[in-house]
Amino acid sequence: MGDLAGRWRELNRAYWDERVPVHLGTAFYGMEGFRARPDSLKGFETAEMGDVRGRSLIHLQCHFGRDTLSWAARGARVTGLDFSPPAIEAASRLATELGLHARFLTSDVYDAVAAVEGEIFDIVYASFGALNWLPDITRWASVVAELLAPGGCLYLAEFHPFSFVLDDETGSRVTHDYFDEGPEASGGPGTYADEAAVTEHNDTVEWRHSLATVVSAIAGAGLRIRFLHEHDHTFYLQRQSLECHDGDIYRHPEGAPRYPLTYSIRAEKA
Question: What is the rounded distance in angstroms from the CA atom of residue 106 to the CA atom of residue 88?
Answer without folding.
Answer: 6
